[in-house]
Amino acid sequence: DPDSGDNGLLLYSLVNDQTNEFDIDEKTGQIFAVSVAGKAGTFYLEVQAEDQGTRRLIARTTVSVTVDPSSTNNIVVVVLNQKINVVERKITEVKRVLQDKLSWNIYIVDVYSNESERKARSNTDVTYVKITAFDDANQVPAEDVKRKLREQKSNIETELEKIFSTPVATAIEEASADSVTPELIATIVLGVLLAVTLTAFLLYLLFTIKQKRNYEAQHLIKKQAEIMEGIDNPCTNDKNGSLKSLEKLEHTNN
């Protein structure tokens, strides 16, 4: 807008706030993802620009955003030794410091704590900030972001100390929650179920074999007892009540 003053001051917005996956910087018009984990494809956003003059003029256009699922691999988690409610209030300043020291466009993907929300906001001095970086057109690989964060660690902490009015320590969280994909979780669960099933089958098989051996041993002992009983009683009654001699018993056994 070539106008000056309020007539040239443009504010950007998403019309009807049609999606929760994206947001827009009202001053610059930059669109960034808020929550697209596990999603891929093309999204169409209607964007509005409005000047701030007395008779406000409005223009709209449709922006297509293509989400590449592999882009989540380039998210980096920065750990701050500050309460989450404090970081949330200062998140714009945190973003500005990171952009200044890393010399990239930085987008805040998420701010969270590992503790329960109520406890974290009052007691826990650890906050995780998920970020991703872009150069002129492309997303910066996570390893490059981590390398530069380490190089600029001292400068970043110095600037953040001015914002929070207290000493600030930063670190890089190597294991992000998003690194565990649904496919990996499913594989782990199936593997555990298979292992449990196999273990149960082997235990059943061992139990069955043991039971069979015990039965065979008992049967053998019983047979031996019957033979010994016949030897200890050389004369026994047959079914007709007559006596059998030991000789006949031995012949039968043979």
TrEMBL record:
InterPro entries: Cadherin-like_dom, Cadherin-like_sf. One of its GO terms (cellular component) is membrane. It is found in: Membrane. Keywords: Calcium, Membrane, Transmembrane, Transmembrane helix. Residues 1-77 form the Cadherin domain. The keyword Glycoprotein does not apply. One of its GO terms (biological process) is homophilic cell adhesion via plasma membrane adhesion molecules. Its main location: membrane. GO terms for molecular function: calcium ion binding. The chain crosses the membrane at residues 184-207. This is Cadherin domain-containing protein.
